[in-house]
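Hi W., the iron/sulfur cluster complex you wanted:
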Amino acid sequence: MAISRIRKSAGDSAVGAGRRVTLNPKVARRSFLKISAATAALTGVAMTSKMTRKANAAEKKSPYAGSTKVRTICTYCAVGCGIEAEVHNGVWVRQEIAADHPVSRGGHCCKGAGAIDMVTSPKRMKNPMKKVNGKWTNITWDQAITEIGDKLLAIREKDGPDALHFNGSAKVSTEMAYQQRKFAAFWGSNNIDHQARI
Ligand code: SF4
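Structure:
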């Protein structure tokens, strides 16, 4: 009952009693096809513009000439699977599975397969941000630590250390998880867990 109410309000996808509900009822099938065709056309224009060109034979053979392979490990969990990172002019440009790694033996989970994105993604956060008047704004580390620290201490003073829950993330490395656990212990609470269990 509750689930069907949520689905209805969110316009979610559901197949029930032989009836299909579209993802977004406002976008009819015809509109969706028009949008798709327009997107494909624009992509085609971009692909054939002067921004791109065919790779020459040497580039096809080795697109990152002079690059070096650096053996490293995935930091997403304690398994420590092997990664072969390709570095070109100081930039991590590609990654391969380290086929002969003694732990992973040529295997990766999906997190490890995208480890390079944690470094090169344009969405990567490089400094603290704060929502000011509804807009995300860069702030200094000093400001972030002071403001968050003051708020935490106020909560602790009012309701005690167990008023807080520390939640780990699948994007947290083994070392960061260790630090989180230590921080919770020094804070005085056992309220710490990993998002995968919640
Ligand atoms: S590839 Fe997956 S299993 Fe291997 S270390 Fe990374 S997160 Fe852990």
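Residues 156 and 176 are 23 Å apart (CA to CA).

W.
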